[in-house]
Design brief:
The model has no long low-confidence stretch (mean pLDDT 89). This protein is mainly α. The chain has one domain (7-55, 90-162). The chain has helices at 7-16, 32-49, 71-86, 94-102, 109-127, 134-138, 145-162. It is built from seven helices and no strands.
Length: 166
């Protein structure tokens, strides 16, 4: 009889092999609940402000200055590009949202790091790959918000179930 392991079972094996999995960059342990709270806050931020697979960096509408353009012309053009980039678009990539939450009252660098660890573990368990990076996964062509939201929900549940209590 063959037993099929669940995503959580496989991810738990991965976590068990890494003694520092729940340790943040500060060297301090992060609880499963703290990590889950961070992941929930990322989900809420992306749901509120919008998720984007990635930001376009090769916009053909951005006109490069002519080689003979004056410094004044180049600076004006630079300010226009910055204004357009900063603008009113509040959407975030998954990776950027994790960072934003780490700099808010809902998380810190430690919870951000362990949130990324959990996301990687879930993706590795799902794919069977030795390495599965959440940034690459989230920016894959065809990725949808529904898939991202489902991953965040699953990761938060895993953190609450398998993470340290204190």
């Amino acid at each position: 009889m063959t037993t099929t392991l669940s995503t959580f079972d496989i991810a738990a094996q991965y976590v068990a092999a890494r003694p520092t999995f729940w340790t943040g960059p500060s060297g301090e342990q992060v609880t499963g609940e703290q990590t889950a709270h961070h992941l929930d806050a990322v989900h809420d931020l992306l749901q509120r402000d919008g998720w984007v697979r990635n930001f376009r960096t090769d916009d053909p509408d951005i006109e490069l200055p002519d080689e003979t353009a004056s410094v004044k012309t180049m600076i004006r053009q630079l300010f226009r590009v910055i204004r357009d980039i900063v603008g009113t678009d509040k959407r975030n990539t998954l990776h950027l949202a994790i960072h934003h939450v780490a700099k808010s009252n809902d998380g810190d660098d430690d919870t951000g790091e362990t949130a990324i660890n959990v996301l990687h573990a879930i993706l590795q368990a799902r794919t069977g790959a030795d390495t599965a990076l959440v940034g690459a996964w989230a920016s894959k062509l065809g990725r949808t918000w529904e898939e991202v939201a489902e991953l965040l929900t699953e990761a938060a549940k895993f953190a609450r179930t398998y993470g340290p209590a204190s």
